[in-house]
Amino acid sequence: MKVGLFIPCYINQLYPQVGIATLEVLEKLGVEVDYPMGQTCCGQPLGNSGYESDSIGACQLFVKNFKNYDYIVGPSGSCVYHVKKHFDILEQTDDVKRVRKNTYELCQFIHDVLGITDLGASFPYKVGIHKSCHGLRGLRLGSCSERMDAPYSTEENLLKKVKGLELKTLNRADECCGFGGTFSVFEEAISVKMGKDRVQDHIDSEVEVITGADHSCLMHLEGLINRNKQPLKVMHIAEILNSTL
C-alpha cells in the first residue's frame, strides 16, 4: 500500500517532532509513505467557526493532493474527522468519496487497518491518555461514558503494549479539555477552567506524561501546565509509539 502523510498545520508549524515521529512509526511498520508537498490546511478552522463556504478551496486542494493514495494518514483526530465528515460540502465526485473513505487517524490506521498493536516501543513512565472529543466521539477510537457500549480504546490497546509504560486510570477519563479550536478564544474563561480540571485529574492520578492522538488538545493542556509550572510533560502518542527508551 502507498500512504499519503497528512500533517496538520499546527503540527507542521509548532510540533514538527510529531510529524517526524508519525513518519518514522509508519516506516518501521513497512509502509511506503509519501508527503505531498502541496498540502495545506484541511479547512477545519474555517468550518468550525461557521465559514464552511470559505473553506471549499482548502478542501478541494486537499483532495487534489491526496486523491491518488491508497490511504491518507494523519496524527490528528480532529483534522481527520473533518475530512471524513465535513467534506460533504464538496461535490461528491469519485475522488472526494475515495479521499473521505480512506483518510485515517494514525492509531486507527495502525490498529484497524494494519492490525498491529505491539510496535516494539519502550517508555518507562506513568502515562495518562487525554481522549479528544473528535477522536473519541467522532472517529469512535474508543467507548465513551455517555453511551452504553462495551469498553474499548484503540489508544489504550497500543499503549498497553509499550514496554515499561504504566497506564494510569483517570477519574473522568473522557471529559473534554475545553480547547475546541476558536472556542478557547471566544470562551476563554470556560476553556481555561475545563483545561485546568483535566490537568488536575492527571496530577491526582499520579501521571508523569499526558498523551493523546490530537495535539490541538495537548497544546491547550501544555499551555496551562507551563503557565502554572506544573510537574507534567505532554507528548503526542506518535512520539511514545516511536520511543525506544
TrEMBL record:
GO terms for cellular component: cytosol. Residues 3-83, 127-221 form the Cysteine-rich domain. It comes from the Bacteria. This is Fe-S oxidoreductase. InterPro entries: Cys_rich_dom (IPR004017). It holds the Pfam family CCG. GO terms for molecular function: oxidoreductase activity. It comes from Siansivirga zeaxanthinifaciens CC-SAMT-1.
